[in-house]
UniProtKB/TrEMBL annotation:
Encoding gene (name): ABSGL_14073.1 scaffold 14385
Protein name: Dolichol-phosphate mannosyltransferase subunit 1
Catalytic activity: a di-trans,poly-cis-dolichyl phosphate + GDP-alpha-D-mannose = a di-trans,poly-cis-dolichyl beta-D-mannosyl phosphate + GDP
Enzyme Commission number, as recorded: 2.4.1.83
Enzyme class at the top of the EC tree: transferase
Superkingdom to which the source organism belongs: Eukaryota
Source lineage: Eukaryota, Fungi, Fungi incertae sedis, Mucoromycota, Mucoromycotina
Listed GO biological process terms: alcohol metabolic process; dolichol-linked oligosaccharide biosynthetic process; GPI anchor biosynthetic process; isoprenoid metabolic process; protein O-linked glycosylation via mannose
Protein family membership: Belongs to the glycosyltransferase 2 family.
Glycosyltransferase 2-like domain location: 30-199
Record text on subunit structure and interactions: Component of the dolichol-phosphate mannose (DPM) synthase complex.
Length: 262
């Protein structure tokens, strides 16, 4: 994992004090999709995204950030690029596994939309929720809309009791110490105004799984508005979960660091 914290130039964007700015007449949505060994999942999630955006008449692109997958994920991405066109599918690979936070930094450099959606490629996040997220953002002009498992109408499917307790415990710990006014700090299905995402990425220090939690905490620090849409999180269809003991330890350390510094 890289120790270097990449800084993005935001000078060309409007200052992220956008809460009173009306939505733009035409919006484009860039999906940042970090991948590692997602050969089997990538065609499915891409088809669902393309279907959702096309049916809703939404301008879109997918930026695939692959960290040198040995299973041929990049070959699949190139095939998908031929099917959907280079205007809809970008492949922006990296040399190896450098962390989730830096994957978003890398992908954001190539995103051409004025809104950015971050989500997992393992089919845990269903694209069917994206129109609801876009609608809520447009109605309230939110800076961020987050998919949450922990509001009425949301939930998880395919987790055992241990993993449910770990997730609930992680959210409870962060909420107790940091009070971010968000129900799902560890979720990774979010819609951002692009300039807001730039600002938050530049302010966020974490690179791994702590990244998602710190982004929401920083959003509160900068007084960004956050809306929430209930979602059902489904455990990955193919492949193995990348969450382990080290990620849980990093999360706890990250919560404590933020509590001591913010």
């Amino acid at each position: 994992m890289s120790n270097e914290h990449a800084i993005l130039n935001v000078d060309e964007f409007t200052s992220p004090t956008t809460s009173n700015t009306p939505p733009m007449a035409h919006n484009k949505y860039s999906v940042l999709l970090p991948t590692y060994n997602e050969r089997e999942n990538l065609p499915i999630i891409t088809w669902l995204l393309a279907k959702t955006f096309t049916e809703e008449r939404i301008d879109w692109e997918i930026v695939i950030i692959d960290d040198g997958s040995p299973d041929g994920t990049q070959d699949v991405a190139l095939q998908l690029q031929k099917v959907y066109g280079e205007d809809h599918i970008q492949l922006r690979p990296r040399a190896g596994k450098l962390g989730l936070g830096t994957a978003y930094v890398h992908g954001l450099q190539f995103a051409t939309g004025n809104f950015v959606i971050i989500m997992d490629a393992d089919f845990s996040h269903h694209p069917k929720y994206i129109p609801q997220m876009i609608k809520l953002q447009a109605e309230q002009n939110y800076d961020i809309v987050s998919g949450t498992r922990y509001l009425p109408g949301g939930g998880v499917f395919g987790w055992d009791l241990k993993r449910k307790l770990v997730s609930r415990g992680a959210n409870y710990l962060a909420t107790l110490l940091l009070r971010p006014k968000s129900s799902d700090l560890t979720g990774s299905f979010r819609l951002y105004k692009k300039e807001v995402l730039y600002q938050l990425i530049n302010a966020t220090l974490a690179k791994g799984y702590v990244f998602q939690m710190e982004m929401i905490v920083r959003a509160r620090q900068f007084n960004h508005s956050v809306g929430e849409v209930p979602i059902t999180f489904v455990d990955r269809v193919y492949g193995e979960s990348k969450m382990g003991v080290s990620e849980i330890t990093q999360y706890a350390q990250g919560v404590w660091r933020l509590f001591m510094t913010i």
